[in-house]
Automatic annotation (TrEMBL), chain B:
Free-text function comment from the UniProt entry: Allows the formation of correctly charged Gln-tRNA(Gln) through the transamidation of misacylated Glu-tRNA(Gln) in the mitochondria. The reaction takes place in the presence of glutamine and ATP through an activated gamma-phospho-Glu-tRNA(Gln).
Identification of the protein by name: Glutamyl-tRNA(Gln) amidotransferase subunit B, mitochondrial
EC number(s) reported in the record: 6.3.5.-
The species this protein was found in: Homo sapiens
GO BP field: glutaminyl-tRNAGln biosynthesis via transamidation; mitochondrial translation
Gene name in the database record: GATB
Enzyme superclass (EC): ligase
Catalytic activity line of the entry: L-aspartyl-tRNA(Asn) + L-glutamine + ATP + H2O = L-asparaginyl-tRNA(Asn) + L-glutamate + ADP + phosphate + 2 H(+); L-glutamyl-tRNA(Gln) + L-glutamine + ATP + H2O = L-glutaminyl-tRNA(Gln) + L-glutamate + ADP + phosphate + H(+)
Subcellular location: Mitochondrion
Region annotation (Disordered) ranges: 26-45
Amino acid sequence: MLGRSLREVSAALKQGQITPTELCQKCLSLIKKTKFLNAYITVSEEVALKQAEESEKRYKNGQSLGDLDGIPIAVKDNFSTSGIETTCASNMLKGYIPPYNATVVQKLLDQGALLMGKTNLDEFAMGSGSTDGVFGPVKNPWSYSKQYREKRKQNPHSENEDSDWLITGGSSGGSAAAVSAFTCYAALGSDTGGSTRNPAAHCGLVGFKPSYGLVSRHGLIPLVNSMDVPGILTRCVDDAAIVLGALAGPDPRDSTTVHEPINKPFMLPSLADVSKLCIGIPKFQFCILTFCYKEYLVPELSSEVQSLWSKAADLFESEGAKVIEVSLPHTSYSIVCYHVLCTSEVASNMARFDGLQYGHRCDIDVSTEAMYAATRREGFNDVVRGRILSGNFFLLKENYENYFVKAQKVRRLIANDFVNAFNSGVDVLLTPTTLSEAVPYLEFIKEDNRTRSAQDDIFTQAVNMAGLPAVSIPVALSNQGLPIGLQFIGRAFCDQQLLTVAKWFEKQVQFPVIQLQELMDDCSAVLENEKLASVSLKQ
Amino acid sequence: MAAPMLRWGCRGRRWAFARVDGGSCHRRGAPTGSTSNQIRGESSVAQQPLHTAQKTRKGEHKWAAVVGLEIHAQISSNSKLFSGSQVRFSAPPNSLVSFFDASLPGTLPVLNRRCVEAAVMTGLALNCHINKKSLFDRKHYFYADLPAGYQITQQRLPIAVNGSLIYGVCAGKKQSQVIPKTVRIKQIQLEQDSGKSLHDNLRSQTLIDLNRAEGQLRVDANISVHHPGEPLGVRTEVKNLNSIRFLAKAIDYEIQRQINELENGGEILNETRSFHHKLGCTMSMRDKEGKQDYRFMPEPNLPPLVLYDATSLPAGADPQQVINIDQIRETLPELPSVTREKLVQQYGMLLEHSFTLLNEVGLLEFFQNVIKETRAEPKKVTSWVLNTFLGYLKQQNLAVSESPVTPSALAELLDLLDSRTISSSAAKQVFEELWKREGKTPGQIVSEKQLELMQDQGALEQLCHSVMEAHPQVVMDVKNRNPRAINKLIGLVRKATQSRADPVMIKEILEKKLSL
């Protein structure tokens, strides 16, 4: 039951094959078993069980609220949840319990979804590995998959398994791990430069970033207001569409949401024929690689990703779609431009964390200023403090024109590149999501957060600059037995069209299900051992 | 927090920056600087001094002063500029604070339509150009009563620019002449207000009130002096002036201080000063943070504010979703300058009286209602409303709406006076009775107190006769051409009539009897 898609389990609930409480308990039990993945910061067991009970009553009375009623979901810990601690994986917000729900959370609850817990992330979503949060890194469930382990056994050089676990990608790695390990059917992430799509690609999931303005940001603790969007992580495209259907629409509390009427329910047609489609293949990547990083790092697109990308293009072409190469000349500046805009907004957004009203406050009370300084030093990690420092530098009166204003202009050029591509008749763009499959944690932390983010956001970041919808779809397993994703980018507010194409593609590639049986067994063993240990301690 | 700000600035002489705040508050010792930078940049175009302080010593140049004002005015709205929480005067501290006002993480500003309309209306009333597109910016500084660490304002592209206001300055020997002047307004901007800090120095702690709904007007004055024809002097900023009287005092003091400083070989520092109202002087606030860089940045959570007029209004636009400048213009009430002109023309009123009538809330309406109901001359009505009526109100610190005397009652009283039923002094007495709120009409009071003028010529003659007989010495004085003596006789007669006789009539009778 846990391995099913959201749509399937929804049908099972409606038919009474399983009750919401049973489903909830199964997920809670799996969350406990997979605790070592560190996917969840807070497990809201009581809340979820109570919600399940209410859902069960509705089903009994034939008053189901819809497809999401009784469905376990998880929410990234940078969305405000009323009465449930919301930390952003930072010391700064440890113990902070918001008095309100983010609009997206409220909408899911209004549809009857069960909130299983709050998922792990990089501190304030600043990172691409889910390794830089105060609660520790998230482990990729694929590290424990049958597919990956079998490949590793074939490799004589493989190191100690325990220390060789893989990162999930990030910053929504907790949400990705939670869905990937079957502890819930969908999870909310956030996506500012690729934070939903990147972990989706590494964890073999569908990671959807809606058009900016389609889904409310109210209650999402911001990274970059002008680029943040709530993201959706699911095991298939149809599930993402169901969740999007529940979330999309204008919110009076978020003035940047648009008042376009949304087609509801968000049903995706099954595309029988792609011959009328035009797929654009950007030729921008190598430009990025050689231009921006030639001096200190040359990230390379893995040959496997390159090859899968070509095959995907061929697949569309062979099915009759028009496949053309498109030029996005300014996307090569995207990462540099993003650095200026992101850090500037971060400097501004983080200003409210001063220890006065909520969150962490240091013991120093010599003066208000000394208290601010110590609170912020203790509350934020190096990555956050570094971005605040850079951002304030870019916003100084003497630097504003040279950095911030220029970056804004470049952002416009990047957005225009996409407009031009779509105006030339392209329906969706096809790119890789990441340079390679997930890497082991020990490998990942050899580079610092900034370098990693710059590298890992290469294919995803420009989309946020332009506010476009994009989705990462798992395509195949690498030689190492790890998932690889490809990204589709659509026209602004053509989210439904984008997902329709993605759904067709998903059906063609038949991505394998993660085989975690071994993990579950191991976990049970681990869990039992832990119990024994605690028992013996008491004795 | 969410306070709309209107900034007006005058090109040239004077800068007026008005902030219209949805909820407002004061800070003490708040960082300063950015607005001053703007003001300074613009005030360099000043052409003629507003204040000219003259030094009469020989060989000395004259000094000219340049003054710019940043006016923070609270918008009269039910809720705050960027949040749904209410604005209410003297509500308990922190009782009207939304999650946004408290800057809880994840909350977003939502612009209050009423505040935008008020800003547009203010802009129109001040002859401003209304920008069809305006933008919001964040202004950053750390302060305990600024919970977000930044304030949302309109620095780059404000809602209205380039306006002017005609006002009157009293001049002449008795300050009775009003000279019209024009002040140029640079810009009007919507701005969120900060909270209010209450410093408890005894316990060395500060309490913060995020209601932000007090202090409806607050002015920062930027002042410099220079010799005419020479570049403008270094400017100081006197912060947080909350009454017109203190504003005037602070400006006068600061001009003189700067002149004295410069003439004694000193220099003026570009600094922030506060006005000490007990000592009547300005003092440096000695902000330790030095030069503040507010790191302005566009507010990413508020799209550009777009306004429409009749020509640009999209067809089929939902009136709830758009703001139409022309529609607001239609609802604009008659502006005070027009009303004043009408009063002068229609009633032959002095310009200064027209200013007084308009400066007191409700007074003009009261005046017009009296005029409607009375036969008395407009000049008489003006005099009674501005002297007697307004005098009583001021004395008891009442608003026009709280007056115990209705326009009808005053009109009736003035009719009695006009028909010479009562004397002026009896009228004053009746007015005093009316003020006691005993529910009696002027007519009832007059008859109860027997205040009618004696109309019986014979009886009055008889009385005069008796008084003359009783005071032979005074009669002698009159005959000896002592000019005051006749008045004394008149007084004595009036007293005998309990002030019910018309002094003019008494005088006529006495003169006849004394054969003067």
